[in-house]
Structure formats: structure tokens, C-alpha cells
Amino acid sequence: MLADIGYFALFLIFITAVAQAGFIFIKNEKQSAILTNYSNYFIFILSNICFFSLLISHAISDFSVSNVYENSHTDKPLIFKISGTWGNHEGSLILFLWLLSVYSLLFTFRKNLSNSFAQKVLSFQGLIISLFAAFSFFTSNPFLRIIPAPENGLGLNPILQDIGLAIHPPMLYLGYTGYSLVISFAVAALLINNIDKKISGELKFWSNISWSLLTLGIALGSWWAYRELGWGGFWFWDPVENSSLLPWLTGTALLHSIIVLNKREGLKLWVIALSILTFTLCLAGFFLVRSGVLTSVHSFANSPERGVFIILIMLVISGISFFLLGQRAEKIKSKNDFLIFSKEGMILINNLFIITLTGIVFLGTVFPLIMQAFGEHVSVGAPYFNLSFNPIAIITILIAGLAPLMTWKSDKFKNNKKYFYFLITAAIISLLVIIFNKFALSLNIASISAAIVLLVYSFLIGFDYKKMKLRNLPTNSYGVIIAHAGAAVLCIGIAISTGWQKSDEITMKHGDRVKFHKFNVKLENVEPFQGKNFISRKATFLIEKNGRFFDTLKPETRFFLNEKDKTTEAAINYGIFSNLYIIIGNEVENAKGKFAVRIYYKPYINLIWLGSVMIGLGGLFSIIGKKK
Amino acid sequence: MKVTQIPLFVLLFVLGGMTYSLYTKKDSGSILPQTKLMGQKIPDFKLEAYGGGYMKPEDLKGNYAILNVFASWCVACQMEHSNFNYLNKNYDVDIFGISWRDNPTKLDKYLKEKGNPYKKVGLDPKGELIVQLGTRGIPETYVISPEGKIVYHHPGLLERDKAIEIAEKIKNKAF
């Protein structure tokens, strides 16, 4: 019953959203604004019905709904029953739809914009919602019934049964769907041929929120992969990871060029183009994940018809947007009266570097796809990304440090002499370290020194070193300091934890003792263990450091009974300065009682999560803190 | 054309490419050229082998042998790996590996983790042999006859069905 209501609501969302998109053609602006507001509320109510009916069906394990049957099981803990709602293609679309409507509603609560502009934004939102509702309704219906209902479900992909993954997709989607508002702003701006201060202020607000949540979403995914996938890494340049990184990169560029727009009324077209591009890349990511053209750790059931539908969505949304951009570009006048050696100039240069990074990631991600078109299966590995992405990222970091310290419009070298001296000193020191280190890990060393420069520069935003006192800053500038310092911390974390990690693979049996880095590792025992919906093999390792007891670590291999699948649960000692990471593998063939064991020592890896959280919170802080 | 119209055309081009990729993904492996060495003797080589010793053409002779070019960093190789484990378990075939541009410790990890279906794995860090073989991208799989001739070449990911087909053919000496 509940599922049928949800299904009906989904259909109504589609109809209402189509209408809402159409309201833009009503000549009477007042009438059109009122109608749009009502339909917007109605869509919000409907999508709540739709989303929660599916969520409740999952929570109460209603196996007459095929989506629940395919992805859930009565043995599953409640939290994962609920997260199972979006742990599959159909359900995640409903979540996406719901979040789109949440953003559309929140948008109407901010009353800074004219009714006619707001109407245009909401109409385009309506178009986006209608397309996603149609996608869900016609190709990916989550409310399909099975009669008679099966006794029990098939279970959820075991690697998805993790708290990190329960919150990672919603967070990520909060970012993606937020960018729907951003593209709607861009289209509305093109329709009225202008972006004024009020509009750019609102655009900044929404792009900041989306970007911060996307940052946290990506970080959560990475944290999950680190703990769950048992590869001991945090980023694998997997196509799906890349597809979330792409809009993040253009979103980063957008975030900064909006500042120029907001302060100086420059870069208008650039901002509009980036707004369109960012949501387009969100959709492209959707395509890469859902159409099944690429393979990655993120498995979703897929069929070509879904892929075609996403292409259609992109054709309509991005097609209309880019078409309007081409048509209206000449009418939008920017005040681009700045020199390159200025804050705007540096932001623009950095934007170009970030776009280059986007291009590198895009190329690396779709290259296998291009080759596939010629019938070849090739993969682009981490070496490509590390070699091409990292050096440019280092330059980006340095410019990011410099830009906030410069003045608007035009600046002089002599005002910034000290900053450049510092930069050059840092470059010379890191070069010496690299030479001294015989060029080993040179990229890591360069990253660290660039990050230190960024860190110091970030604090100089708030500290006047000439007068030796804190500057009196508008509150939102603290957001910039936090986010930039976070980027530096993240970068240091990545460089140290990858460059100086230690790892070893050994076979051990009960009572074996091995030396690893600073540790003595003893395998105490391996025991079977019964969980709620899995059985596992749990090993107990006794770790000693410098002859003293350090920790007991218990990695597991879990066998999920219903799903007939296994996962490795790494055991991690989360030290503040380093993590010790142990994985227990299979029993070695032909050697009973011997197990494959992998150990990693990861120095400063916590900085990666700390940095990511700082970036995300910094982004949020800069909108919460009102300008003076 | 105005500069600002370019994005629309780029979009349309990309969407076209996406549609194309969607409909070509099924018949992968069919368009790629076969090696020019088809039917000829496998080039002479001497590669250091995984786990010590060397791998030479003589190792492959005597029986039909499957020769799989792979690397631990290659995602498509990881995907097809279980198919070789399957063949190793269920068929009496000799499977040899050539690991291209691989880091020995990573290769070691890869094989320990995913299982080692290979009778011998030759290390080709600079890609000297595989270029001679006519490999264009990895993974690629060859079948070598008992006389040391290349009798079959499958560029790209080897699907389970195809792998079984090859093993059956070897069993029936149908190459």
C-alpha cells in the first residue's frame, strides 16, 4: 500500500514539475510567480511522500516491494536497512529527487531576489526535477511489487554495510543537487541578461553550500574506502571517485570566481559557464556510474536504456544552458578592468590551472571509454594521474596562497615582495632537501613545502606581521583561512602518508612474531566469530612498540551469509600521528593455520581527514559569517 | 561562430561520444587488429620470472599454452583475473603470464591476494617482449601451440564465456 502511494506520488511529481517548468511562459509575472511557488511546495510534499514511503518500506522490510527484496534482509541492522534505501540505483534516484525538492524549497525561504528572477530559477529547477522523476518513473521504478511477497530479501552488498557508506551518498548528493540550483541561477541570469550584486550574493551562498557538502561527501567516501576496501589507500583514481572530483574541481573554480563577480562585477560569463559546467559534470558522473560503460568498485545494476536517458537529461539541461550562453553572451557586460597582477588576476589564473586539472582527470577517466569504442579494454592507472595531476596541483596551491594576500584591481610587486621572498626561500629549501634526498620522493617533498607556504599565507590573511597584531577581519574571512589552511593540511597529509608509508605482506601462524617498522607484531590467535548477519574470522594481533605493549588489533574477514560475499575489515590503530593498519587474508593454500597478513604504517594520514573537514567547514563558515 | 557557442558544440560532441560508447560496449574486442605474428613463431625472449629464474619460449612448448599479458595496476586485468583462476581450477591448461611494467612487490601482493593461476610469470618491465608480440594495450591474451606458434590472439578483457571457449578448444585440440 505504502509503495503504491509512493509510486503515485512519483508520477505526480513528474506532472507537477513539468507544469512548473512551463510556468515560465506565463506572461503575467505575478501570476506565474504565485503558481510556481505553489507547485514548488506541492513537489516538496510529494517527494517527501515518495522518499519516505520507500524508506519506511525498507525499514519495515516489506519484501513485496522488489527494491526492498533485492537489497535488504530481515537480519540486517536497522541503520543499514534504512541506508539500503539509497544503496541501490533506483532508491538513490529517489533520494536525489527528494534532495532536489529540498533545495528548491530552501531557495524560496531566502527572500533576497526579485519574484520574477526566483520564478525563472524555480522553473528550471522544475525542468530538472521533471526529468529525474521521469527517469525514475520510466526506467528505474523502485516501487515495483512482487506478488506473492517473498519470505526474505536477498541482502545488501556487504561492502555497503558500513556507517561511512550510510552517510556518504546523501552527503555527496547534497553537493550534486545543490549545484542544480547553481545551474538554474545561471540559466535565469542568461534569461534576464544580467547578474547583479544580489544575484551573485545568492549564487555565492548556494555554490558555497553545495561545494562544502560535496567536499565532505567525497571525504567520507574516501574514509570509507580506507577502512573498508582493505587496500590501505584513500584515493584510487577510480572512475567513480574521479566523477565526483570533476564537479568538485570546477566547483572550486566557480567558488572563487564568484568572489570576483560579487566584489568587482567581473568574470560574469566565466561564472555562468562554470555554473553550467559544474552541474553538467555532476550529470556526466551520473552517466559514468549508472550506465555501466566503465567498471569500478561502485557496482550498480545497469542497462543501456538508462544511459540513454541520462544522455537525454544532459542534452536538455546542459544543452539549453549552453545554447542560452551562446545566444546571450554578448548582452552580459562584465567589468573586467583588472590587471593580471591583482587578486582577480590570480584567481583567474588559478581558475585556469584548476580547469587544466579537470581536463587531466576527465581525460584519464574517459580514455578507457574512448579506447573501448575501438574495442580495446585499457586502464589508466594511478601513475598517469600522479604524474600529471600533482605538479599542477602544487602550482595551484601556491597561487591559492598568494591570491588572498593581494589587493583588488591592481597590485604592485613591491607590496608583495616579502611574500615572494618567502616563496623563493621555501622553493630553495625544498630543492636542497630534494637534492639531499637524491631526488627520491621529490614530488612529495615539493608538495609539502608548497603546502607549508599555503599554510603560512593563510594565517597571514588574519595576521598583520608588520604591526604584529591580528587584523580586524569580516567574519567570513575566517572561513577562507580555515579552508585554505585545510587544503594545506590535506596536502601535507597526502604527501607524507603516501611517501613515507611502510607496508609488508607476510604469512603468519598462531604465535608467530614479526618485526615491522618500529613494531613487534604477534599473532595471538584466529577465531571464528558470529555476527548478526555474517560469520567472520577474527584475528588478534598483539602489537608492541619499543618493547612495550602498544595495542591489540583485531582485523576480520567477514562472510555474509545471505549475500554469499565477503569483506575485509581492516583493524586500525588510529594514533594521532600515524595509523597502524592490519588486514588478515585467507588461509594460505597447502599450509594449514598460516594466514596472509598485510600491515601498513601510515604516518600523518589523519591529516587527510582533518584537512578535508577543515575545507568543508571553512566553506560553510564563510557563508554563515555575515559580511560586515 | 562565436567563442561562447563553442561549449554547446563540445557538449553535443561529448554526448554523441557517450551514446556511441553506450552501444559499442558489448562487442568489445572484435574491432581491434590482431597481432601480425598470427600463425608465426613466438619471438625469442628471456625474461626474469616471478619468484626467481627465467621464462623462455621453451617453457611454453609441448602443450597448448595460454599467454596472458597483464599488470597489477590494470583494472581490466583485475576484472578478468578470476577467469584465469577458473580455468586453472577446472581445466588442464597451462597458463602463463607476462607482467608488464609492474612493480615486483605490487605484483607479489596482487598474486597473493587474487590467487596465482599462472604456471610462470615473466616480468617485462620495459615492454620489450610485448611490443614484439604486437600487444597494443593490456590485458591481451594469446594461445601458443605446442610448436610455439601463436594460434590465437584476444585483445582486451577476456570474458568468462570466451575463456571457457578457449579452454574447451584447447581440450579438443581444435586450434
In short:
The complex is a heterodimer of chains A (628) and B (175). In chain A, 61% of the residues lie in helices and 13% in strands.
pLDDT average of chain B, as an integer?
Answer: 83
- Estimated helix fraction of chain A: 55-70%
Structural class of chain B: alpha/beta
What's the alpha carbon Rg of chain A, rounded to whole Å?
26 Å
Features:
heterodimer; A: 628 residues; alpha+beta; 4-stranded antiparallel β-sheet; 12 strands; flat; B: 175 residues; alpha/beta; 5-stranded mixed β-sheet; two-stranded antiparallel ribbon; 6 helices; 7 strands; 19% strand
Would you kindly provide a written description of the structure presented here, covering whatever features stand out?
- The complex is a heterodimer of chains A (628) and B (175).
- With 628 residues, chain A is of the alpha+beta class.
- Chain A is built from 17 helices and twelve strands.
- In chain A, strands 4, 5, 6, 7, 8 and 9 form a six-stranded antiparallel beta sheet that branches.
- The radius of gyration of chain A is 26 Å and the shape is flat.
- In chain B, the strands form two sheets. Chain B has a five-stranded mixed beta sheet with strand order 5-4-3-6-7. A two-stranded antiparallel sheet of chain B has the order 1-2.
- In chain B, helix 3 packs parallel to helix 6.
- The longest helix of chain B is centred in the N-terminal third of the chain and has 19 residues.
- At the A-B interface, helix 10, helix 11 and helix 12 of A face helix 1, helix 3 and helix 4 of B.
Question: What is this structure's SSE topology?
Answer:
The complex is a heterodimer of chains A (628) and B (175).
Chain A: H1 2-22, H2 29-59, H3 66-71, H4 78-83, H5 89-109, H6 115-139, H7 163-192, H8 197-228, H9 239-264, H10 268-290, H11 304-328, H12 343-373, H13 382-402, H14 417-436, H15 442-462, E1 463-464, E2 469-470, H16 475-499, E3 502-509, E4 513-516, E5 519-530, E6 534-545, E7 548-553, E8 556-560, E9 565-569, E10 571-574, E11 578-587, E12 594-603, H17 606-624
Antiparallel strand pairs in A: 1-2, 3-12, 4-5, 5-6, 6-7, 6-8, 8-9, 10-11, 11-12
Helix pairs in contact in A: 1-2, 1-6, 2-5, 2-6, 5-6, 5-7, 6-7, 6-11, 7-8, 7-10, 7-11, 8-9, 8-17, 9-10, 9-12, 10-11, 12-13, 13-15, 14-15, 15-16, 16-17
Chain B: H1 6-24, E1 47-48, E2 54-55, H2 57-60, E3 65-70, H3 75-90, E4 94-100, H4 104-114, E5 120-124, H5 128-133, E6 140-144, E7 150-155, H6 160-171
Parallel strand pairs in B: 3-4, 4-5
Antiparallel strand pairs in B: 1-2, 3-6, 6-7
